[in-house]
Amino acid sequence: MPTPMPGSPKPTPDPPGAPVPIGLNVCIDHLQSGLHLVTGTESKGAALDAVLHRDWGDYDKPSDQWKFETAEAGGYFITNISSGMRLTFEDSGSARRPLVKVVDSQDVDTERWTVRWSDLLDSFTLHPAIQGFDHLAVTPKDSLYRQKGESAPATWSDTSLWLVPREPYLTQLFKIVPRSTSRCC
Description:
Layout lengths: L24 E6 L5 E9 L2 E7 L11 E6 L5 E5 L5 E4 L10 E4 L8 E6 L6 E5 L7 E5 L18 E7 L8 E5 L7
Antiparallel strand pairs: 1-4, 1-12, 2-3, 3-7, 3-11, 4-5, 5-8, 6-7, 8-9, 10-11
């Protein structure tokens, strides 16, 4: 895991009136690809990968839906409606770019997230709420950060997510889509 950066600023709270829909079922869409944040289907121990997946049209899939809940220690818990599992990141201590996972709720700091709003189409970047890791943002693994020699994916569907330093890239922007108006949910 990346070393916490000493002296990094505390996450700033959302601006007053920010549209984080607490307690409502929403889809979280990747702004650039239009894919949905969902839980992977293959278990890796007690955790599932958080992945981007295709739009199902008008079909209502609970695995595409998430609920933001205010965390007492600051930030939000983001819970998948289908599985009841929370968005988290691996805390292995050795990963240079920690993978974003979905796990059973354990009320630990790696399950807390902050939302930083962009001026672009009501989009946001998603960051760990842990001081020292808040400079990292959720990013599709198959975007700008492919390993040397790897080719670009034919599609981003089923693309894993990881935490990398925040940059002004479209690949790090997401959008909340309320369930009542989403094409997918």
